[in-house]
Design brief:
By secondary structure, the protein is mostly beta strands. About 0% of the residues lie in helices and about 55% in strands. The chain contains no helices and 18 strands. The strands form 2 sheets. Strands 1, 2, 5, 9, 10, 11, 13, 14, 15, 16 and 18 form an 11-stranded antiparallel sheet that branches. Strands 3, 4, 6, 7, 8, 12 and 17 form a 7-stranded antiparallel sheet that branches. A hairpin with a 6-residue loop joins β7 and β8. It starts with a strand and ends in an 18-residue tail after the last strand.
């Protein structure tokens, strides 16, 4: 069905994701301490079971273990949510966890640097597994967005069109013995999740520290 296909569009090489079947394009390598940057935009098609729901996709990182760990489709991982109006949200998939500075809004939590450091986990039911971004910085439908993921020693930054919409700390996962361990590396997966999507200019580079321009978002919560 060519759910994932590379195409030439307006003279550029673009990854087209049809969204028709749930799945992922998975990196061959594992990555640790890196800065991922790519461009993303929505297509117009949607598929069951999400015809009446928001366009949905996602960047899964620190992906480990079997491909069928979450919903029998995706790996155990951390998620940089790519969903219309929710770009940059966090989800814990298959028994992972993160700490996020947040405030409670109704039944949910929003990233807020003035909030408290709270634990988000799908490994234990007593914790929520999802946190909302701090604000919406997505461009209008069908326009290209620049998404960046910075990951360094268990700390992550979700960046949408140049703005940090969430900082995350102390990445962990539950192993087969039920023990929580640090999760700082893994493969990267680009989801197909019921909505047509496009990616281009995917770049990744190694880093030896959090870039200076982003230190203010994380300095208070780093050990050094």
């Amino acid at each position: 069905k060519k759910v994932f296909a590379f195409k030439k569009i307006d003279g550029e090489k673009v990854l087209h994701i049809s969204g028709e079947i749930y799945g992922a394009l998975t990196s061959k390598k594992e990555y640790e301490n890196y800065h991922l940057k790519l461009q993303f935009k929505w297509g117009d098609k949607k598929w069951e079971p999400r015809l009446d729901k928001k366009n949905d996709s996602g960047i899964l990182y620190h992906c480990i273990g079997p491909y069928t760990k979450f919903w029998n489709v995706w790996m155990q991982s951390q998620e940089f949510q790519v969903q219309k109006t929710d770009m940059g949200d966090y989800y814990s998939l298959g028994g992972t966890a993160m700490d996020i500075v947040s405030v409670k809004k109704g039944k949910e939590f929003d990233y807020d640097q003035k909030g408290q450091l709270k634990h988000f986990s799908s490994a234990e039911k007593k914790f929520p597994n999802h946190a909302n971004k701090g604000f919406d910085n997505e461009k209008p439908h069908a326009e290209w967005n620049t998404l960046e993921l910075i990951s360094y020693e268990g700390t992550s930054l979700h960046i949408v069109n140049g703005k940090v919409v969430m900082a995350l700390f102390n990445s962990e996962y539950k192993n087969e013995e039920g023990k929580m361990l640090p999760l700082t590396k893994g493969r990267i997966q680009l989801q197909s999740e019921g909505a047509e999507a496009f990616y281009k200019n995917v770049k990744i580079k190694s880093i030896s520290k959090i870039p200076r321009k982003y230190k203010k978002h994380v300095a208070k919560y780093l050990k050094n």
